[in-house]
Amino acid sequence: MIFRAYISLLLCGLLCLVAPSAWAQTKSVFVLGTERGPAAEAMREGLRDALKSVGFIEGRNLKMIVETVVDDEQKLSQQALNLVLARPDVLVALSAPAAQALMRHTKQMPIVFAGVTDPVQAELVPSWSASGSNVTGVSDLLTMARRAQLVRQFVPQARRVGVVYNPADAASVLVIREFQEQLTKAGMLMVEVAASRALDVAAAARSLIGKVDAMHTFWDSHTQAAYPGLVKVANDSKIALLAADTLSVQAGALAALVVTERDVGVAAGRQVVRILRGAKPGAIAPETISRPQIQINLVAAKKQGVSLSEALLKSATVIVKE
Question: How many CB atoms sit inside 10 A of residue 120's CB?
Answer without folding.
Answer: 14
